[in-house]
């Protein structure tokens, strides 16, 4: 996670040496509680982008954002099941 100049929390990937940062998510709301997929290709996370906390998935390169949950008012802290 990273904090933008507007003091919003977004998902970012940062190189191990801390020299490069790529922000994956944009827009309104707080994006938090990221969890990497077992294969490292996706992240699931909580976001208040639509007003209430919902679960989203995004590719590791920041493409193909997909909302996963549509009901409930506080969906948070998603995790992946262990790979079988």
Question: Mind explaining what this structure looks like?
Answer:
- This protein has about 80 residues and is an all-beta fold.
- It has one domain (about 1-65).
- It contains no helices and eight strands.
- It has strands at about 1-5, 10, 10-15, 20-25, 30-35, 40-45, 55-60, 65.
- The strands form three sheets. The protein has a four-stranded antiparallel beta sheet, with no helix packed on it. It has a two-stranded antiparallel ribbon with strand order 1-2. The protein has a two-stranded antiparallel ribbon with strand order 3-4.
- A hairpin with a 6-residue loop joins β6 and β7.
- The N and C termini lie far apart (about 30 Å).
Brief synopsis:
The protein is an all-beta fold and 84 residues long.
Task: Output the keywords.
single chain, two-stranded antiparallel ribbon, 84 residues, mainly beta, 0% helix
How helical, in percent, are the residues? under 10%
Strand ordering within the main sheet = 5-6-7-8
CA radius of gyration? 13 Å
**Number of domain modules:** 1
Low-confidence parts: none
Briefly note the structural class of the backbone: mainly beta
What is the terminal-to-terminal distance?
Answer: 28 Å
Mean pLDDT over all positions? 92
What is the approximate shape?
Answer: globular
Strands, count: 8
